[in-house]
Amino acid sequence: MDNKEKIHNKLMDIVKEENVKVDEMLRDHLYTKLGGKADFFITPTTYEEIQNVVKFSKEEDVPFTLLGNGSNLIIKDGGIRGIVINLKHLDKISSEGNTVVAQSGARIIDASYYALEQHLSGLEFACGIPGTVGGALYMNAGAYGGEIKDVLDYAYVVDKEGNLVKRLASELDLDYRTSNIPDNGDIVVEATFNLKPGNYEDIKAVMDDLTYKRESKQPLEYPSCGSVFKRPPGYFAGKLIQDSKLQGTSIGGAEVSTKHAGFIVNKDNATTSDYIALIEHVQKTVKEKFGVDLEREVRIIGEDAE
Ligand SMILES: Cc1cc2nc3c(=O)[nH]c(=O)nc-3n(C[C@H](O)[C@H](O)[C@H](O)COP(=O)(O)OP(=O)(O)OC[C@H]3O[C@@H](n4cnc5c(N)ncnc54)[C@H](O)[C@@H]3O)c2cc1C
């Protein structure tokens, strides 16, 4: 039996057989529709299964990577070695009093609409962010003046030893599109949001307005990873890119969106290499024209194709 077969068998002891896939094509799980294969792709159904995967990964020295909704990730064409964990089966959302509790595989959009149904205000900003709750905490996702930091009370995580641990929002170092979740090696499994009672019609009006703004400004008709760059202090990334006359510039099938300069779209069967080359071209051009360093918001992971 080779090592890959051994790992496969062990993973099928930890999570249900139908929830372990080998050589899974990751582009099918990513917003950009880019990226190679994962050696193992698993979708646990309980927190205990996640804990056991983490312990197995540590004991056997097999790396793991979390994949949420793939809306802020670029995965290289060579894919990801080891285990990719996706929490799509852990997607329950509930409420108690003024809180909404969401498992980390739930979409943050669904948590936002769930809060609306409970007449709770605070998650309106998230009604169009296409990530999971776990990905939203990791990135401290935000839009239109709101961010996760404003509403998160606490989260449950599986830490790097495999323990289920409660972390208060204040312990997560939530800041502009960042947190200490990667540094700690935590897997977010559940989040509790502290909201305020509100009027259904008022909350809905805000969400409708944000949805209109998003749909009219963003190139949602093409695969993308949203805004590629963070907002540089004192500037807007989109404006710098627009003023550099980069809109419509393409490398292979990747193009700087003509609708929203901050987006790079996969217009025509791009490869990850096209996408990354275009990101670097934009960074270089903006630096030359305006002397500003554009820092990526989107994460690039995985291996180059051989
Ligand atoms: C069209 C479009 C519009 C967007 N608009 C916005 C916006 O307005 N505001 C905004 O902030 N972002 C926006 N984004 C980016 C993206 O949706 C957010 O960053 C989102 O929070 C990412 O969540 P995800 O589940 O897709 O994470 P992924 O892209 O799957 O992963 C992102 C990172 O989080 C980690 N991760 C995922 N789940 C977990 C977990 N459970 N535990 C630990 N780590 C985890 C991954 O390992 C990875 O490093 C947009 C993207 C697109 C495509």
Structure description:
The chain is an alpha+beta fold and 306 residues long. It is 31% helix and 26% strand. It has nine helices and 19 strands. It has helices spanning 3-14, 47-60, 108-117, 133-139, 148-151, 181-184, 200-217, 237-243, 272-290, and strands at 20-25, 37-42, 64-67, 73-75, 80-86, 93-96, 99-103, 120-121, 142-143, 146-147, 152-158, 164-168, 187-194, 196-197, 224-227, 250-251, 254-256, 263-266, 299-301. The protein has a five-stranded antiparallel β-sheet. It has a four-stranded mixed β-sheet with strand order 1-2-5-3, covered by helices on one side. A four-stranded antiparallel β-sheet has the order 15-18-17-16. The longest helix is centred in the last third of the chain and has 19 residues, at 272-290. The radius of gyration is 20 Å and the shape is globular. The model has no long low-confidence stretch (mean pLDDT 96). The structure holds flavin-adenine dinucleotide (FAD). Flavin-adenine dinucleotide (FAD) binds next to strand 3, helix 4, strand 9, strand 13 and strand 15.
Chart the SSEs and their pairings:
Elements: H1 3-14, E1 20-25, E2 37-42, H2 47-60, E3 64-67, E4 73-75, E5 80-86, E6 93-96, E7 99-103, H3 108-117, E8 120-121, H4 133-139, E9 142-143, E10 146-147, H5 148-151, E11 152-158, E12 164-168, H6 181-184, E13 187-194, E14 196-197, H7 200-217, E15 224-227, H8 237-243, E16 250-251, E17 254-256, E18 263-266, H9 272-290, E19 299-301
Parallel strand pairs: 2-5, 3-5, 4-19
Antiparallel strand pairs: 1-2, 6-7, 7-13, 8-14, 9-10, 11-12, 11-13, 15-18, 16-17, 17-18
